[in-house]
């Protein structure tokens, strides 16, 4: 690692730390119905939305009604996005003339589910497949909607911890509206204008055909990019306008916009930790959650950066300079943009997989084995290391319930968290999402590894005409494992050596995305409803404090140990064995294939 690279990471984290409290305080005021500096502009629009939609602002809901509203809204969003894709050939704002036949039923289903669940997995090339109308009215709008649903769910769950002896946890439609109007829209407008000022494009022009310096013809895609880019990052969505995503200069023109993008990814998840502390009446609780997230983030980013800067030992043996010098970056620059370099790329990789954001500014498939293990394991921790908008906080609160349960077992007391007794029902509901996502990842990855069908870019069935072992062995397995980790954890990034636009992958990743989203939210809403109805238990000398370093350490250990115990065998077959193969050469390679 270089001093400049470490400084880049330190500057990013320092800025994040500075903006966490003001962002969290603002969101707490919004969701508690207090006046903010945006009220003179936004409040009239908010009232108009309530009148047009028939929403009673003061009518709160039990958790079942809250969840029902969320599911109804999600079903509508799915049908709307699916229909726009299939009908794009007869709809306006389609200067390229992209027809509905470019989007098969299984691909349309996968994409609609993807953007519904805040996954934004893209099994297609956007600039050659979907019209401007689909990009704007379906995908960009759904970026707002899915992010607002995640924030609303987190706020409802916070109320479950904050309230006592009540049956209501808020109003889904009010929380959805406030998330969109006060948080997502204003920040997205500012970010989009900033991106435009730096060189990101925003237009409805047809694609431009130009002559290159060599005399060849090239088609340059254009479109309404900056507006989608802003909410793609802020809402931890990740679906790019271009297939190259944030590695494309029209989406991410410079190192400055790269810094802004990764800050946008983390600003709401980090701020929500302070919102949590403020709404439960003890900001120390929020800072404890932030500290646990920060520890795991910093370890991950420096591990990834360290292995990427160390480079590939096979190339070093061939005489390639692995160390950074004044004239070259050294390390592993494969799949990375030179305008970002290794440190900013490793930081982006870690941030985007800590959050449920599938945006990329480099090729994850080109990472070193253990450099690639970091984003993969980030996904497999249920993305609670800051995580997505809303989902990171409520996922970490789930692990907090498990952590205090473990602490209670150690000392022989009924576990408590924030003055609420954690009983059998809460623990069962907390374990259900963890088991569900683990099941989806491991079973679907295992089935895809052995199923006798054409696996395209990484494996073909044996035979004289179809044998292709370019990505066989541990790296091919890593691609499959990463695919289902990304889908089940609603991330959306990929080890892009895999071609996922097949009926098998479109259907199975779609199923994984649906269950990965709602098998987390629904049990936690049930927990919120149960906790809100409980009495507050006064703290005693036997109460385990949940705001100090001991709890932070226990929470970090709970997340890491559960993830390690669940996924270590699979990781050992993928990136870990690939690391040893890279360092030891043909002997270990031969032993691996003989053993397999």
Précis, in short:
With 596 residues, the chain is an all-alpha fold.
Summarize the structure in words.
With 596 residues, the protein is an all-alpha fold. The protein has a domain of 205 residues. Helices cover 62% and strands 2% of the residues. The strands form two sheets. A two-stranded antiparallel sheet has the order 1-2. Helix 3 runs antiparallel to helix 4, helix 9 runs parallel beside helix 17 and helix 12 runs antiparallel to helix 17. About 3% of the residues have low confidence.
Q: What is the overall silhouette?
A: globular
Overall residue-averaged pLDDT value: 88
Order of helices and strands: HHHHHHEEHHHHHHHEEHHHHH
Helix content: 55-70%
What are the main properties of this structure?
596 residues; mainly alpha; two-stranded antiparallel sheet; 2% strand
Give the SSE layout.
Elements: H1 3-31, H2 39-53, H3 63-86, H4 105-116, H5 132-162, H6 172-198, E1 208-211, E2 217-220, H7 225-234, H8 255-279, H9 283-310, H10 313-317, H11 341-354, H12 369-380, H13 391-411, E3 416-417, E4 420-421, H14 424-450, H15 473-488, H16 503-532, H17 549-584, H18 586-595
Antiparallel strand pairs: 1-2, 3-4
